[in-house]
Amino acid sequence: MSFSDIVERIKGVRGVTEVVTSRSALFITATADALKPLAMEIYQIMGGFFRTCIGSDERSINNCFAIYYIFGLDDRGLNIVVKVYADSKKPELPSISDIVPASDWCEMEARDLFGIEFTGRASYRLILPHGWPNGVHPLRKDYSYDSRPVTRAVSERLTLVDTISTVPIGPYHPALHEPEYFELYIEGERVIDVKYRGFHVHRGIEKLGESKLTYQQVNFIAERICGICGFEHSTCYAQVVESAAGIEVPERAKFIRSIVLEIERIHSHLLWVGVVAHLLGYDAGFMHTWRIREHVMTLAELLTGSRKMYGLNLIGGVRRDIDLSKKEKILEVLDTISKEYIELASLMVSIPQVRMRLKGSGVLYKEDARKLSVVGPVARASGLRRDVRKDLPYAAYRYASFNVPVYDDGDNFSRLMVRLDEIKESISIVKQLLDQMPPGPIKVEEFIVPEGVVAISAVEAPRGEDVHFIITGHGRPFRWRVRAPTYQNIPALKHMLKDQPLADAPLTIASIDPCFSCTDRVLVIDSSGSKRTLKLGWGLG
Amino acid sequence: MKKNPLSLLTIASSKGRVTKRYPFEEPLMTSEFRGKIEIDESKCIGCGACVNACPPNALELLSSSGTKTLRYFIGRCIYCWRCIDVCPVGAIKGTREFELATDDVSDLYELLIHEEAKCSVCNSPYATVRIVRYVATRSPSTEGYVSMDPKCRQEKFVKAIEMRFGGLSA
Ligand code: SF4
Ligand code: SF4
């Protein structure tokens, strides 16, 4: 299908009122009736992926609520944004979750935070806590960022069905590093279903960015969305504002961003390999992976000023340059880690017990991966060749040649192999970019961000694609939405855990390399109280 | 090398101990590390540029009768050094200090008190004495109005126009 064919097909859908093309995206405005046919066309017929949907309170501009659905035609590097308005008094839209299962969470997020109802599906609270009052929607513009509604304490327990044993894990549990709640339903040794309730560590970052901070300040707060891959968030945010404002970032700054992004991927994957070794009871492997990782952390500090929370990005470029002595240091560290890490990794995957635990466990089939539009190593271990660095190249990735490792088995072993291979690729990317780095300035200082511009940016974080969406406002974003990779991957856990032995559950959960605080950047609830009956279905509601 | 689980022992023994005996040894730290900031009392003019740039509100400018206080709360500081980037007089310096834990929260506050300048016409406070001095020495052409608050400045300007052209409206 050629580009003009795509545009023609979309224009042919009844209810499409406007199609605007830009460099890397198609912006479509449509009526509510056109939503399902459009979703069918883009997701099912054209084979697009679903990135996320975004609610927005635009009553002050056009007296309506709006939802933006972002689809991605990865193979042609094209984003398709569909905008649909909802009535300001009774906001209601048809749900597309039957056509696009991946839209389950973002619809419920818009329902919680904006009060937009979705018809034709079961609704539940995803973000807001149980005890949060009904009818209070914190991302609406008439809700002030510092208001504190009166909430009640309500039990987290979701389901207790007499005939099935329930194993609750969390919200505070020694094996979980962040507050999250899983309920595993067990028959004998087998997991037959899972429920997940997260969003306990909602920090209201988007609200803060829309009402208190300035454009440059948001950058530093965006970096704090995640404690492991924060630099991806700050890069993604900087890029989305730069794209909205048409800022040309100096080439050298783009190279520095890509180099530091890859350094972050190396330390993140090494961290994960260590955690998996630990979960397998192979603590010696854990210690040694982290010993190797330490070199990378020190390197990050040398380049940016901090082991984590680099504070390197600004809108318009970066704050620190990589000089000759730093370049030499990078090469030295990369040499050390590539030798040591290859030795350790090949040792680890050769251990029979490690192979036995990982092979064939936690399988995510390609069809399910595609239905849920999963991202990152989880997608690539299930045979989907998705990588934003290739599909929608940003920063300096177009100057590096690298492979996107893809494995087809969809099991925990494949996810390990994807990450091990990616470390090698990252080392090679950093070396290539260091060689080609052009001289010149590293930031532009003067720029104006016009109001009312919509932009999207995606960055391939170690866990998958980060997506940032912005509608620019006066001095700060009017709407800023962050979609972390784990947000897209958690719903797949249901498929990965089902029919698996209980003992593999912690490992499988860890295999998506979940980062809950990323996912929770935004605040789950059942207004009827604590009891719910078991339903098998899409999502982990 | 043939791999078996015991190969790790070879790796381990060749590496030896890698952890530091901190705090009995120097911590692992590079020259580039960003720590706590230090504000030079003699240079700061109390302009508030750092306050506007500081992402987590670690710097605040508090007004009370006759004074303006620049308050640095280390408990909120994220050590980003944005304040250093924006300070017009280079009053802030970054240090590599990070051992800041304390059992007394008041240790985490640093105060810098500025005297407030009063408008020469209406006597209401409008800036710090040092800002007025800074502006006056930087651009002497402001001499006629630098000692007034914005409201009186505006009135003076309108009056001047009236004297020359007989008013702003035609
Ligand atoms: S920016 Fe500099 S001069 Fe202005 S208040 Fe801050 S420290 Fe003082
Ligand atoms: S270092 Fe950053 S957080 Fe700390 S006072 Fe300066 S601007 Fe604020």
**Annotated CATH homologous superfamily of the domain at 248-446 in chain A:** Cytochrome-c3 Hydrogenase, chain B
Q: Which regions of chain A contain 5 or more consecutive residues with pLDDT less than 50?
A: 521-541
Pairing-aware structural class of the strands and helices of chain B? alpha+beta
Using the alpha-carbon principal axes, give the shape of chain A.
globular
Structural class of chain A: alpha+beta
Order of helices and strands of chain B, N to C? Answer: HEHEEHEEEHH
Question: How many domains is the backbone of chain B divided into?
Answer: 1
Multimerization state = heterodimer
CATH topology heading of chain B: Alpha-Beta Plaits
Mean pLDDT figure of chain B: 90
Gross morphology of chain B: elongated
Radius of gyration of chain B: 27 Å
Overall pLDDT score of chain A: 90
Q: Which pair has the most extensive contact?
A: A-B, 31 and 27 residues
- Which ranges of chain B are low-confidence, i.e. pLDDT below 50, for 5 or more consecutive residues? none
Number of helices of chain A: 18
Total E-strand runs of chain B? 6
Predict the CATH topology of the domain at 248-446 in chain A. Cytochrome-c3 Hydrogenase, chain B
Distance between the termini of chain B: 95 Å
Which ions, cofactors or small ligands are bound in this entry?
iron/sulfur cluster
In this structure, how is the largest beta sheet of chain A organized? 5 strands, mixed
